[in-house]
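Archive entry: two folds, one per protein. Generate the first.
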Amino acid sequence: MRLRSFTADTLPDAMHLVRETLGLDAVILSTEELGDELGVKITAGLDDDLDDELDLQAPEELVEAVDDIAEVLDFHQVPAPLANRLMSNASGLTAADNVMALAGALDGAFDFAPLPTAASKRPVMIIGPSGAGKTATAAKLCARVRLAGSEANMITMDAEKAGGMSQAETFAAALEVSLQRADESGQLKDLVANVPAGQLTVIDTPGISPYDEAALQNLRDTAETIGAQTILVMPSGGDCYEQAESALAFRDTGTRYLIMTRLDSSRRYGGLLCAAHAGRFSLMGVGISAQIGAGLAPINPVSLARLLQPAKNTQEHLSLVLGTL
């Protein structure tokens, strides 16, 4: 394989240089952010033994798809290692359009899981940093169950936060769901044990710092005591590497699922992608508005690819994108 390096101001510009110099069969081996406004460096290779019989999409479509993905990832400020993997995933796919090419790339890099329902056999514990929207997410999960014609109940462990109990009470009253309070894991275990079969139990927990090891261990112990499925809630915005470090810390609690919130308050979702990838979380859903009844939507590779297309993320736009699931 013949190797060459290309440097440009942006990732899309560097990708263009690769295609222009090495042609359509170039293989992207690595990308590197040079820092200090020095641009991006791509190392690419050309394998003289590539099999011409591979069933790949037409060359023009392939180049357009990879270049479009590079622009999307650059807009969301996705770091080079993850961007490189996604572009490599897309480079060998047959897709109807650029969005579907990105969807295929995302499908190869992330796992997806359905949101909990009343049929779930385990209680759900919502965890995450302060201000992530945990209480609202807990209420939105209950709302989805109620709208589906089933029963749900909420248990709050976040009653000591200023306004925490009143917020939970407001949500519970609006949804006509039971609300109970648990101050420690023993009390929580008794409450969960008394929930009638066929109901989804959603537990709202206090926000904690991802760097508080004692609090993280307590969360893990509590979840194991009641046999709960833990779901991490993280808001959009913020530094990619900070989000990734936070996600790794919460993964140590045993959680394997992620709900991404506040998508209506940010336009760049690179931090959330970094968090999901670093923690190897299965993506469950996205919070797209403050509305309890319609503010939480499921997510899959196609809808995520549509959400990543640079656009003015108004409520109308987000609802339209997720309404095409």
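Generate the second and append.
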Amino acid sequence: MAVHGESLPVNSPRPSDSADLAEFGYKQQLERSLGSFSSFASGFSYISIMTGVFQLFFFGFGSGGPAFIWTWPLVFLGQLAVALCFAEMAGQYPLAGSVYQWSKQIARPVTSWFAGWIMIIGAVVTAAAVAVAYQIILPQVWSGFQVIGGAADIGATSTPGGAKNAIVLALGLVVFTTVINIVGVKVMAKINNFGVAVELGGIILLIIALAVHIRRGPQVVFETSGSGSGHSLGYLGAFMVASLMSAYVFYGFDTAGSLAEETVEPRRHAPRAILRAITAAFVVGGLLMLVGMMAVGNIHAKELSVSGMPYLLKSTLGNTLGDVFLVCSAIAITVCCLAVQTAAIRMIFAMARDGRLPFRNSIAKVSPRSKTPIAPALITGVLTIVVLLINIGNQRAFFVLTSTAIILFYIPYLLVTAPMLLRRLRGQWPGPDHGPFFRMGRFGIVVNAFAVLYGIAMTVNLLWPRGAVYGTDHWYFQWGAVLTTALIVIVGGVMLLVRRAWTAAPAGPVSSAVAEETV
């Protein structure tokens, strides 16, 4: 394609992209400069193997023994079904806001409101949960990062000193990501791309390094270490608890769709980015855990259930090489938090632009200099800091934060996949206006149904107030995820009732599917 006789660079915006956006009633305000790798990187960095696996391997291993690794492919299959549904949506509706926008196109306004509202709060909580992961990594690289507490608190989030220090380190990270998101998407993308390159390279080298030290065969994945004792359902109960580790990692892949208005040729790049991100995470994450358990010296070491992956690396590879990979993990945590906040910013911007949030004119305003919505960046930064400060010094807060963050994504995901399934059953999806983009064809209804069933089952599993996850010392921690989720839904409902103006018709025309009766 050429303009005035000159070829456009590969990652420069095409006039057709802006015209495509205009058909939805929106003006091109955000800077469209992201290419295919940046689109993939946004989803992969949100999933972030070196964040999720390093942060929660100890929980999965401690809850289900080495056999917990079987939760990895099971959760992947469930989320892959969701990702396939999202890929269809991303190709059809290349708009900022992902889940909110997709739900808006196929469901009632109240459904899309809750999808966006819950997703925003979920992203804020996720950013806080991700930022807390610094505590597991940085103090083990250098004790100077343990500002609060002593040697017993290094790398721990379950001790009073460790819990407080986790908040201190997290606050610094959130301030950094907020500043970067204010500066602009180009800087954000460069940092994110660098972080993802480091993470992918680091994981591959780490897998190779661990493979050199293999001590046992792959049959280790059938060991349960007696973790089923104490559960009314035996090992099944332990396995369901351990599955929370995998569930925590496999979400956020929709971010590639959320940055659609800043991506060149989003109808082509976004669907592929979503599927590539979740598939790459599955492959490298699974290999890392498998080879790690085959290589660690003592598979029954109690440290594996306390420190987890950092202990596994240092005890197997030595302190120096172990620290190198921990630094890679710290970089991955940084770009993961950055991606989480970026996605939240686009969600707030999209909802405000449609008149669905208070002070919508101020919130939806895009800086003419940075081409970035400044107000949403500040809002997400401040809210994340508030969440961290509320939980300072609470050892159990780490698990409540983590589980609540996952729940607040599974529910909005269902608010897309469930209406989508109803439309398939009615013969309304894909519609006659569905373009030549990603389509599942005749397998669509089976995949979609599986995505819905999986989403419901995992949401129930996550909400289950078990002492094995939240502890039994205080009832409000044990019921923390349930109460927090209920409160967020209630507040969203009150906001919807008090200000019906926020649910007015979107700024631009909606697909003909919305005109039909939906749920």
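Annotation attached to the second fold: Residues 319-353 form the longest helix (35 residues). Residues 29-143+183-356+395-515 form a domain with the Amino acid/polyamine transporter I fold (CATH 1.20.1740.10).
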